Amino acid sequence: MVVVISTRIDKFGQVLRVVGHRFWSSSLVHSVSETKDEVETIARIINDHPFPVQPLQPMLKRHVTSSILSTKFVENVIGRLFAAHANGLKAYEFFEFCLHHPEYSPTSDAFEKTLHILARMRYFDKGWELMKKIQQLQPSLLTLKSLSIMLSRIAKYQSYEDTLEAFEKMEQHLFPGKKFGTEEFNILLRAFCSQRQMKEARSVFNKLHSRFPPDTKTMNILLLGFKESGDITAVELFYHEMVKRGFKLNSVTYCIRIDAYCKKGRLGDALKLLEEMDRVNCLPTVETITTLIHGAGIARNISKAKELFNELFKRNLQPDTGAFNALLSSLIKSRDVKSAAVLMDEMVEKNIEFDNLTYHTMFWGLIRSNDVGGVIDLYERMVDKSFLPKARTVVMLMKFFCENQRVDLGLSLWNYLMNKGHCPHCHSLEILVTGLCSRGRVEEAFECSEQMLKKGRHMSELVFQMLKRSLLQLGEEEKLQKLYQTTKRLEMILPPNGQTLGTA
């Protein structure tokens, strides 16, 4: 439809306006559709490329032409590789290829996602290499987020000393013109707190707080760390320390304490904090009420969960996907799957997007009810929407399908993810290979394992030994040798995953 700006526009002008609007609208839709297809195609080609048997650069030169190379295109391809858990070196090679293209100017989004993929797979040397390149090419892209990406993964996989050394290295060599302050200090603390390393976080705080004056955000990060550690006594002790030090409490402070009580099933204490927020005029947010709805679910108090959900409207707060998920989870915990299904329909009516937690929660409720038909129906709806579930949801579905004599659906899920350029978690492969081999479908089990290896991902010792037994029984020594050789090549370049394959 066309909005008429002036009633004096003549008929001919209106016709031109309508035709022009339709032409540009259809052109735009066509352009967006084309771009989306190109992104999916390139991401799939990169993910499916036999690695490390063949180099990636020649393939990129053939397929990534100047006509499609743009900042948004690169961001979308790397975003797709990130979501698909692609091998980090492939993503890095793609980003490097784009960096060397004269018409491409890197963005923080593309850089940070590439760095995240590398750090997630423990390619720290490559991560440092990438940061150094960006410092030389476009230092403005080195931000607090890139600092956080590296420090959080180093804190997860390496030692306390390594993390402090990385912080100093960034300050002295990668951000030489920038004076580190409280914001950078907060990121260092968050790196330890997110891993529940509270002894280390407290040590860093005591060591550096005189150099980096803490603010309310600093204290909230530490408070959150104690909450994530599950120590409610430590949460309250540190909260009182915050008050004693004179820090101004905010809605985040209250939300952390409320969540700590909710996770322990102490809904009454959490609700008292909500009343306290109202008394001190600290306005609750959607996140605050959402946390309480979750707490009501944990306490199996479904009437309170519904009351809190309705309170969002009374407070003029608009419920988002998170709030709906909290109520959905509460209904599922109370085994009211029927009401949960009605709530999902309401989300559709109100154009509230489903996220992975929405699907995961509903799948969990249907599985716990042993509703095979319901699981299959929701799975088909999810696939129809081209939604890509996260690893834990994939593992849960794969296990359910294989345990309920529907290994065909397990294989269907595997193929769906592969066709989308997504590389499933190795535990999904273990479940699927077990299901296929136990039914004599060894060829399909071999093909799935080979797909995983070709994408540059580890195969577990369990899968290898299972295939070894099955292939030897069938006299398929050649296929076994092929798997073994590909795996050994991968072990030479991939970070260790804690498993070493035996001899073929």
Q: List how many beta strands DSSP finds.
A: 0
Distance between the termini: 67 Å
The name of the CATH topology of the domain at 249-353 is Serine Threonine Protein Phosphatase 5, Tetratricopeptide repeat
Helix content: over 70%
Written as H for each helix and E for each strand, in order along the chain, the element string is HHHHHHHHHHHHHHHHHHHHHHHHHH
How would you classify the quaternary structure? Answer: single chain
From the coordinates shown, what is the CATH architecture of the domain at 249-353? Alpha Horseshoe
CATH class of the domain at 249-353: Mainly Alpha
**What count of helical segments does DSSP give?**
26
Regions with pLDDT < 50 over 5+ consecutive residues?
1-34, 498-504
Query: What structural class should be given to the helix and strand makeup?
Result: mainly alpha
CATH homologous superfamily annotation of the domain at 249-353: Tetratricopeptide repeat domain
Mean pLDDT: 88
State Rg.
26 Å
Q: Which percent range describes the beta-strand content?
A: under 5%
Q: How would a textbook summarize the main sheet?
A: none
Shape: globular
PPR repeats: 215-249, 250-284, 285-319, 320-354, 355-389, 425-459
Pfam families: PPR, PPR_1, PPR_2
Organism: Solanum bulbocastanum (Wild potato)
Family: Belongs to the PPR family. P subfamily.
